[in-house]
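dumping these here so i dont lose them again. two proteins, back to back, each one seq then structure tokens. dont judge the mess
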Amino acid sequence: MEKKICTISITTNWLDDKYTFYEDDTIKRAYDNSNSASEVTEWLEPKQISKQNKDKLIKSCPEEFKERIMLILDYP
């Protein structure tokens, strides 16, 4: 497993939605489908993430990682 850069949460209400970024430019998303469902994990390509979620991720990103995360997400 590659080294983790950071994890960014864009959780809304009670449903978890976390993205973990790795140094090999991979992205892991862990989220809840519903209040009663357990966490689902998937590996994503930047093009699979909506512009709205990319905006939220960049807004919530710690400043020291922002430039690197923007490169990984091909943002804007």
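---- next one ----
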Amino acid sequence: MKTGDVLIYSCVIIGAGIGLTMDYLFPGVLIGLGAGYLLKYVWSGERKNKDT
């Protein structure tokens, strides 16, 4: 399992936990999923540098 995938899964679980505490499980999971993909994108270095 790749580290980027672990990052996405952990964000989904954290989002689900926060969603359960506020009685909105599914929106919490979706927010966690989106945050996980954003963090994976930022930390993986897949971005292209437009300055060079």
